[in-house]
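Hypothesis: this fold can be encoded by more than one sequence.
Test: take the C-alpha cells below, design a sequence, compare later.
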C-alpha cells in the first residue's frame, strides 16, 4: 500500500510539472539549435497510456515511446517480457496520461519522417538510446 501511495504522489508531482510545461510551450519544435549552431540531442521517453483505433474504439493500455515529447511507436503489454509495475499502477498511470489513437500516431509518424527525426528509421544523436524499444521477432 505504501508503494501505491508513493507512486501516486510521484505521479501527481509529474502531472503538475507537465501542466506547467504545457502552459509554457504552446508549440513543440523538435529541432533546436544552440548559439554555436550545434544541434541538441534527442531524448527518448516512455509511459503507459490508452491507445485506440481510428474511431476511438477498442481502447487498450500500451507502453508508448516518445522522442522529445512526440509519440512514435508503442509496445502492446502482452509483447513485453517483464513489466515491473503491477496492473493497478499501470492503469493509474495510463488514466493520467493523454490518450492516443491510430490517427494521432500516424500524423506524428509522418511528421517525424518529414523532419527526418524518427529514431527507428534515422540515425540520431540520442541522450538515452538504451530506452528505445527492443526489436520483437515477428
Amino acid at each position: 500500500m505504501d508503494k501505491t501511495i508513493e507512486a501516486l504522489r510521484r505521479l501527481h508531482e509529474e502531472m503538475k510539472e507537465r501542466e506547467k510545461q504545457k502552459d509554457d510551450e504552446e508549440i513543440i519544435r523538435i529541432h533546436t539549435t544552440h548559439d554555436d549552431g550545434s544541434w541538441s540531442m534527442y531524448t527518448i521517453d516512455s509511459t503507459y497510456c490508452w491507445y485506440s483505433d481510428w474511431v476511438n474504439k477498442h481502447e487498450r493500455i500500451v507502453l508508448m515511446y516518445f522522442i522529445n515529447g512526440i509519440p512514435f511507436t508503442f509496445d502492446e503489454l502482452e509483447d513485453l517480457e517483464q513489466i515491473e509495475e503491477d496492473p493497478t499502477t499501470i492503469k493509474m498511470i495510463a488514466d493520467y496520461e493523454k490518450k492516443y489513437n491510430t490517427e494521432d500516431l500516424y500524423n506524428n509518424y509522418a511528421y517525424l519522417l518529414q523532419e527526418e527525426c524518427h529514431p527507428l528509421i534515422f540515425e540520431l544523436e540520442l541522450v538515452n538510446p538504451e530506452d528505445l524499444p527492443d526489436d520483437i521477432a515477428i
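The two ends are 38 Å apart (CA to CA). DSSP finds three helices and four strands in the chain.
Hypothesis status: open.
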